[in-house]
Specification:
Heat Shock Protein 90, alpha+beta, single chain
Length: about 150
């Protein structure tokens, strides 16, 4: 079937739930397994939360999604300050936050962070999908979750 959408949202905390609802319905409509849905919803939530917390320059951000052909591709675009995701340190195990990038990298099949020379960052999350009966947790990222996240 396939679902494609793009939505521009205000940089407000309530919008994380809006994105989750859109994605949940798109993934369900395509028969995506529970484990894949969990991974996608968590990584999308983390990427959106990072924009809301750190994307200080612009009032809005954009989420683009394409669920088709056995994969889900998400792009979360903000116009805040650029950053180098490779320079973000691992979180202290006792900290309550700071695990978003780590989660994105471990629960997605491919993650890229692209900074614009004009400001802003695009986070691209790619996930291969499994449908109902063909699910194998080995392909959903659930087997790759680092112990420090548990």
């Amino acid at each position: 079937m396939g679902v494609k959408f793009s939505i521009v949202l205000p940089r407000q905390p309530y919008t994380v739930g809006v994105v989750r609802r859109f994605l949940t319905e798109a993934l369900r409509a395509n028969g995506v397994c529970d484990e894949c849905r969990f991974s996608i919803l968590l990584t999308a939530s983390e990427a959106c939360a990072n924009v809301i917390e750190h994307g200080t320059r612009a009032p809005n951000y954009e989420v683009k999604a394409n669920v088709a052909g056995g994969s889900c591709l998400l792009r979360i675009v903000d116009r805040g300050p650029t950053f180098d995701a490779d320079q973000v340190p691992l979180p202290d195990p006792d900290e309550e936050s700071g695990r978003g990038i780590l989660l994105m990298r471990h629960l997605s099949d491919d993650v890229t962070f692209t900074s614009s020379r004009f400001g802003g960052t695009t986070v691209q999350l790619h996930k291969r999908l499994h449908h109902g009966g063909e699910h194998s947790s080995a392909g959903c990222g659930m087997d790759r979750t680092p112990a420090m996240l548990c």
